[in-house]
Design brief:
Elements: E1 4-9, H1 13-26, E2 31-36, H2 39-48, E3 53-57, E4 72-76, E5 88-90, H3 95-106, E6 125-129, H4 135-149, E7 155-161, H5 174-181, H6 188-195, E8 197-199, E9 202-205, H7 212-215, H8 219-232, E10 237-243, H9 246-254, E11 258-263, H10 266-281, H11 285-290, E12 291-295, H12 304-312, H13 315-320
Parallel strand pairs: 1-2, 1-3, 3-4, 4-5, 6-10, 6-11, 7-9, 7-10, 11-12
Antiparallel strand pairs: 8-9
Helix pairs in contact: 4-12, 6-8
Length: about 325
């Protein structure tokens, strides 16, 4: 069986290497893929080789490369496309589905087909954990939820905090992502995908490297981040560890499906009541309806089984399993 010749044109060398590595390991008997990261090398290849399909990164959708006389498809960074005349494959989906659509395009029937990127997306459930006075307990609580729910759901844990356990280490995460948000014409979704790491039953986005990195986050940053996770479309639950204050915290809390507030002593209960009172005064009934105060049980720090039992008793958690 002759292998189909495919050219991949993308500025992202990491994605190109991952794409070709997958092809080499799983599709080598059916496809021969060559990648190009600049217009000059692609132009030379197109003029001297015969490709059955040219895959073009959506960032180049309006470039002269689209004028080549060969079958083309866009690797789209968005769920929806404005020009249905050119086939498009949604970039941020399982690689198996990407190759499935490539084979459909290479088949004879594909000539008559018009490919939309994907089905209608939906934002995953967002479980928020917020505490006005206990950052360590808040983080532990959020991670326990992520580990427990990750047993049967695809879960992503995100630490939106400046001073917690997650600000240690060299992994790029929230710090780099916030800088990336400020760059024009960048695909935030792929950047998120590149930064995600795995822990036990769940994926996570590493926390900040320095507390000042997140100090200036505002409502618009929160909205862009959440839009990026929606486009990613591979998680059915996000655990938001809300270590923020002020308007940015309220913006994130408003986007949650459910919010827990863990506290463990009388001072904690007092500050919790003060926060809830502030929400009532501000007429933030929407957030108030989401919040469920939780009392941290004795033995929480010392025994894993106590922490798990505490999480299991949360109504929304038991209903979601």
């Amino acid at each position: 069986m002759n292998r189909s010749q495919v050219a991949l044109y993308t500025p992202d060398s990491r994605y190109a290497n991952a794409f070709m590595d997958y092809c080499l390991r799983h599709e080598d008997n059916r496809l021969n893929v060559k990648s190009y990261t600049n217009a000059e090398s692609l132009d030379y290849a197109i003029r001297n080789e015969k490709f059955e399909l040219l895959l073009v990164d959506g960032l180049f959708a309006n470039d002269p490369v689209m004028n080549y006389e060969c079958k083309k498809a866009i690797l789209s960074h968005n769920k929806y496309i404005s020009d249905p005349s050119i086939p498009a494959i949604f970039l941020y989906q399982k690689i198996e589905l990407v190759f499935k659509q490539i084979y459909e395009l290479l088949s004879e029937e594909a000539v008559k087909a018009v490919y939309s990127c994907a089905a209608v997306s939906s934002m995953p459930d967002i479980y928020g954990v917020y505490s006005p006075c206990y950052p360590l307990e808040r983080e532990q609580f959020a991670k326990e939820i992520a580990e427990y729910t990750g047993e049967n759901r695809k879960v992503l844990y995100i630490n939106f905090a400046g001073l917690t356990e997650s600000d240690m280490g060299d992994d790029d995460g929230i710090s780099e992502l916030l800088l990336y948000l400020q760059q024009p014409d960048k695909a935030i979704t792929y950047k998120i995908q590149a930064l995600i790491r795995h822990e036990k039953n769940y994926d996570y986005l590493p926390g900040v490297k320095h507390y000042q990195d997140i100090a200036g986050i505002d409502k618009s940053d929160i909205k862009r981040l959440l839009a990026g996770f929606e486009q990613l479309d591979c998680y059915d639950l996000v655990i938001a560890d809300v270590g923020l204050e002020g308007e940015s915290a309220r913006e994130l809390l408003q986007c949650c499906t459910k919010v827990w507030m863990p506290v463990n002593n009388h001072m904690g209960y007092g500050r919790q009541e003060h926060f809830l009172h502030d929400l009532a005064v501000e007429k933030n009934e929407g957030i108030l309806e989401l919040i469920e105060p939780v009392s941290i049980p004795e033995g929480w720090y010392a025994r894993k089984d106590i922490r798990v039992r505490c999480i299991k008793r949360l109504k929304s958690i038991s209903e979601s399993r």
